[in-house]
């Protein structure tokens, strides 16, 4: 069993709207059947997939009922000229058919789709038409993906399933480019399904197109305001000091003295003591040149203190052997 969720139904009430907008109580089933009849008539008259002589590239039909006896039909199409016809003949003929079917006053509004490459149903319908004309399925899928990406889509996924190429065993082929976030509610993802009726059987084509994120008005205003406020700071020249400020005043922060502070947190006033060090200047340093170091005198190095391990233990000295007395010394002593 498949675990795929319908992208449009998943986002209803968040970033997507309903294609039928009306309210009914007891006659709900009758109004719902009337919507199906309206869509079938429009598809039969203007859609090439339903047998019409000319395909008007209709993506979706929206129906609104503001009054009990009034119906507003919005037709989203990539070819408004075909829907209107010469001097409005076709749209008037379609209006008479819908009024005869519903027994109500019908008003038709035509909305042009300026970028059909970003409409999922129209892309799927294009691929299905090519498959019916025996075009290689992989070539048709790749061409549709490339056209959508060139038109500005951030991601597209196309899945075709059935007896592709006349194979005996049906299989599924997929073509993906870019990113298609399926679980992000703010993502504007359009989904379309079309069928190609070939001599080998029916081939289904599914298309997901990611057109970017839909942000709320508050978040969009915050992002635009943040982009306008954030200005790059100009680089500060070397040696330039920032102006000092007192406690409690705004502006840039001054340099903090290195001396001691009093107990109350106030800086000591007056001159610094001779031993205190003033703030270091940020500019060029005026340090006197260092005199060249002369050769180190030899022989003035202090002897290194001996380590306890290096101290030698004193050895017991043995007395020298006594020398024998000569005869002359013996006579003198006598």
Automatic annotation (TrEMBL):
Residues 224-334 are annotated as: Disordered. GO terms for cellular component: cytosolic small ribosomal subunit. Keywords: Ribonucleoprotein, Ribosomal protein, RNA-binding, rRNA-binding. It comes from the Bacteria. Residues 237-250, 258-287 have a biased composition (Basic and acidic residues). Binds the lower part of the 30S subunit head. Binds mRNA in the 70S ribosome, positioning it for translation. Part of the 30S ribosomal subunit. Forms a tight complex with proteins S10 and S14. This is Small ribosomal subunit protein uS3. It comes from Thermosporothrix hazakensis. The gene is rpsC.
């Amino acid at each position: 069993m498949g675990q795929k969720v319908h992208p449009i139904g998943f986002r209803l009430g968040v970033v997507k709207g309903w294609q039928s907008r009306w309210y009914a109580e007891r006659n709900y089933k009758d109004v719902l059947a009337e919507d199906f009849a309206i869509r079938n008539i429009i598809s039969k008259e203007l859609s090439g997939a339903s047998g019409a002589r000319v395909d008007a590239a209709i993506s979706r039909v929206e129906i609104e009922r503001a009054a009990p006896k009034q119906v507003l039909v919005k037709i989203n199409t990539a070819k408004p000229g075909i829907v209107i016809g010469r001097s409005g003949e076709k749209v008037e003929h379609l209006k008479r058919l819908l009024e005869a079917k519903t027994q109500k006053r019908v008003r038709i509004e035509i909305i042009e789709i300026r970028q059909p490459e970003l409409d999922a149903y129209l892309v799927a319908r294009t691929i299905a038409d090519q498959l019916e004309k025996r075009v290689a399925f992989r070539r048709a899928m790749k061409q549709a993906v490339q056209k959508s990406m060139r038109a500005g889509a951030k991601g597209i996924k196309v899945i075709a399933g059935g007896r592709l190429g006349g194979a005996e065993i049906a299989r599924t082929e997929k073509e993906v480019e870019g990113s298609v976030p399926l679980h992000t509610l703010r993502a504007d993802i359009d989904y379309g399904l079309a069928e190609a009726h070939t001599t080998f059987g029916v081939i289904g084509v599914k298309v997901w197109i990611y057109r970017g994120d839909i942000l709320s008005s508050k978040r969009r205003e915050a992002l635009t305001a943040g982009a306008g406020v954030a200005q790059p700071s100009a680089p500060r020249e070397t040696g330039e000091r920032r102006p000092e400020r007192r406690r409690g005043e705004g502006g840039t922060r001054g340099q903090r003295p290195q001396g001691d502070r009093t107990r109350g947190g106030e800086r000591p006033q007056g001159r610094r003591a001779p031993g205190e060090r003033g703030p270091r200047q940020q500019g060029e340093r005026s340090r006197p040149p260092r005199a060249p170091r002369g050769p180190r005198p030899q022989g003035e190095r202090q002897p290194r203190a001996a380590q306890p391990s290096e101290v030698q233990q004193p050895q017991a000295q043995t007395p020298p052997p006594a020398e024998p007395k000569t005869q002359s010394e013996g006579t003198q002593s006598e």
